[in-house]
Amino acid sequence: MNSSDFFSIFFNNLYLFLAWMVLCCAVLYLAIQKLAPAGYLDPLHFYFTFTFGTSYGIIVGLYHLELVSDFIFYTIFGYAVLFILSLRFFTLRSSRQLYKCVSFLMIPKGQGVGEFYALVIVYLFLLAFLMIQIGLGINADTNRFEQNRGFGAFVRIVDDVRVFIIAYLTLVVCRRWASSRSLGLKYYLLIFLILIIAVVSSAVNGAKFAMLEALYSSFVAIAIFYRKAKFRIIFAGGVFSVALVFALFVLSINLDKAGFDKEAQPTYMPAGSVLVERLMLRVLGNADKYYLTLPNDVIDKLQTDAVWVRFLSPIIGSTLLSQKLGYTVNDFNVGRQALLYYSPDHTISGGPTSHFDLFAYKYFGVFFGWLWVVISAFIFACIITLSKMGKGNIYYSAIIATLWLRGLPMLLEPPVGFAYMLDVVIIFSFLKAVCSLLPRKGIP
């Protein structure tokens, strides 16, 4: 079933799919709400509740229409149940040893002010370098993945550091407000700086999620610093309004670049606009790897390479590894294979992601797929545990917020999310080691 076939089926059975999508999102929300460090404003709800909720709703709809086999259906939902139960189980225990290990590797003595300034300088240089070399991601001619080819390592570092900087500066402002209930000119300038960093870095990144990630970094850091801070519901409305406006803005630019006539009649939603329809199709894109691979058991026909290649590729760079191995390694993740199954001549970078369940099924097999699901839950549970130990420490809270935000993509593309987390550990361990060798007189 290709995308066009699915869209026709979806809109012909619109209420069936929408009902299951809403129900699945609600079930996932209730299942993980108490685990999310920032409550209902936690990015876990974007990555898991929303993305997987809409995807699972589509899978149920396809299963109801007898387009997905019993075995595949129960395997996917078995992995979902196992992930949730494992996550809840592993978060029951608090590990002081894990906290000590993270502190030893990444947390400097004092308040980390010197380390923060050093990181800001590096960040500004890298951001300027990327803007000169590849421009803004929102202006990419094809897509941001193609535009970033050859610069992936720099893009990853900038994305890691920007989350930390926004989280850190947010906590500086919040601490000032909590102590005096007033903000001077300095702190208003800091707020303005946070907004500038969020907007510029999101434009360079080019992802529709980029602005939402910047906002999430602030809320997660606050929740860790103040230990489960409670946010008013108006914040949620504000966050998602800003994210929606940015997503529509990026989508509009992408449509212009692709030569779409935004005044044309929509294909599937005659009463709406092309822009709204494309946004709706983008939401359905959360499930593209499922509707492309589960009907007719296409998932079993996809090719794979060694699992070590999957994890090594984002760490050392897919271009370099492809040169060493003699084939394009990015073509062998599950999502990309699904795309190539229907469009063998597709050469532009990007495509569907794999999702942890399909990754587990294809790379660990029917009998051992559960192992990767449990490992994933354990890794996320470790970060959740660490998030409970950062009360009152700005530097620590910002780092754990960064680990959390950069680790959650492991749900969507496991090797990439793992590489993101490894980046964070390496960057801040290296930063601590270097700064410990420098004179710190007068620096807190």
UniProtKB/TrEMBL annotation:
Keyword terms: Membrane, Transmembrane, Transmembrane helix
Transmembrane segments: 6-32, 44-65, 71-90, 116-138, 150-173, 185-203, 209-226, 233-253, 363-386, 393-412, 418-438
Parts forming coiled coils: none
Protein name from the UniProt record: Oligosaccharide repeat unit polymerase
Organism of provenance: Pseudomonas saxonica
Source taxonomy: Bacteria, Pseudomonadati, Pseudomonadota, Gammaproteobacteria, Pseudomonadales
